[in-house]
């Protein structure tokens, strides 16, 4: 548990939150129900779970929020919550985040700026 990384995010529904990111790579399959049709399925092949500190790290509606470390380096983006669909989202549900480098690569975006290493890069 010593490798946990303190992170922060400001979400649309939960405001500024703090959490502990476990840098162990994980995958997550998310099924989004659609009215009158097949659910949309998202397979996230590489990401991390973040447990909230003093409350939930993220809530429904926070997807797309940027996650920063204590050095203010952008390290990830919130994409989901790991919830039990039988009970709905709970404050203890961890957020699932994907590395920001994967987001930028998927968008074919190259950023320039200060050349400094971040915790998770």
Sequence-ordered SSE layout with sheet pairings:
Blueprint: E1 5-11, E2 15-34, E3 37-52, E4 66-69, E5 74-81, E6 95-99, H1 100-106
Antiparallel strand pairs: 1-2, 1-4, 2-3, 3-6, 4-5, 5-6
User: What series of H and E elements makes up the topology?
Assistant: EEEEEEH
The main β sheet shows up as: 6 strands, antiparallel, barrel
Class, according to the CATH hierarchy? Answer: Mainly Beta
Count of separate structural domains: 1
**Count of DSSP strands:** 6
Percentage of β-strand residues: over 45%
Account of the 3D structure:
This protein is mainly β and 121 residues long. It has one domain (5-106): Thrombin, subunit H (Beta Barrel), CATH 2.40.10. The chain is 6% helix and 50% strand. It has a six-stranded antiparallel β-barrel with strand order 1-2-3-6-5-4. The chain is globular, with a radius of gyration of 15 Å.
């Amino acid at each position: 548990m010593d490798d946990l990384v303190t992170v922060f995010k400001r979400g649309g529904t939960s405001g500024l939150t703090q959490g502990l990111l476990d840098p162990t790579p994980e995958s997550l399959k998310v099924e989004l129900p659609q009215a009158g049709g097949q659910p949309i399925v998202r397979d996230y092949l590489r990401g991390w779970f973040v447990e909230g500190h003093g409350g939930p790290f993220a809530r429904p509606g926070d997807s797309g929020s940027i996650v920063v470390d204590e050095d203010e380096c952008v390290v990830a983006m919130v994409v989901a919550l790991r919830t039990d669909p039988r009970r709905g989202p709970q404050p203890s549900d961890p957020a699932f985040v994907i590395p920001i480098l994967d987001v930028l690569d998927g968008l074919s975006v190259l950023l320039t700026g200060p050349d400094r290493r971040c915790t998770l890069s």
